[in-house]
Amino acid sequence: MTTLNALLAAPRAGWQKAKRHFAQAALIHAVALLSSPARAALPTMPTPGSGIDGAQVADGDWLGAMGAYWKQGITILAMIFVGYFFLKVVMGAITKWNQYTRGQADISDLKEYVITGGVLAIALVAMATYAIATLG
Question: For residue 131, which of 57, 85, 65, 71 has the smallest C-alpha distance?
């Protein structure tokens, strides 16, 4: 029985080795095909509207375009920041309301939180608007 297993093991090992080599060869061709550049006519990127100083960006002015993209990125980041803190204020007010309805907080605590949260939200919007306006 041992001799039969030894006789069958040699072709099985050779077959597994051949499968492994075939898989590696196929992988090389697949990677070469996937890494080749696209042959389609890709659209050109539109130039952004205004640069850092508010001036229009001319075609081919890559430095002005980078400044305009930077301005747009800062604007989006400021809006995300304001939106996040607005949601934090609203969720805190809802939490304070739940504490008030359960009797764990006074009405003065709820009023204080709502007024402070409103002032904070207005201040954040004003600061973000000012920051965006200073960019141009």
Answer: 71
Q: Taking a C-beta distance cutoff of 8 angstroms, is the pair 82, 128 a contact? A: yes
Sort 125 into a burial class: Cβ within 10 Å, 0-12 / 13-18 / 19+: middle
3-state helix, strand, coil in the chain (%, to 5): 75, 0, 25
Instruction: Name the residue with tokens 């990677």.
Output: 31
Per residue in 10-24, pLDDT (tens digit) is 666 666 777 777 777
Q: Which amino acid is at 60?
A: G
**At 73, is the secondary structure helix, strand, or coil?**
helix
Cβ atoms 96, 105 nearer than 8 A: yes
The CA distance from 135 to 99, in Å, is: 43
Rounded Cα distance between 53 and 29, Å, is 50
The neighbouring-strand residues paired with 56 are 50
Q: How far apart are CA 114 and CA 129, in angstroms?
A: 22
pLDDT greater than 90 at residue 80:
yes
